[in-house]
Amino acid sequence: MGCLGNFIWFVFGGLIMGLSWLLIGILWCVTIVGIPVGIQCFKFAELAFCPFGKDVYFGGGVGSLLLNILWLVFGGFALAAEAAVIGGLFCLTIIGIPFGLQCFKIAKLALMPFGASIR
Description:
globular; mainly alpha; two-stranded antiparallel ribbon; 4 helices
């Protein structure tokens, strides 16, 4: 399912979603202060291009916790809610359930991107 799922995902929205995250990450990296946020946007872009077959592992320490709290306050919660709603809409059909699960994976990463790694 990984290769076929990634192809279907890429054609029907993954390309646009990934490119938008990549562009936002580049814009954030223009400033020195925004580099950590830009790196997180690159994580989202990687997952948005091809989410099937990738797992997100969470870790980190106190620094990651503090940055995740700031991330939630300044937009992370809205991104997570958006991905969760889209995932819920996908799950309304049997064919869309795998795509909905990938949206939930993106929503979870949107809640806690600092300290997370994608493998």
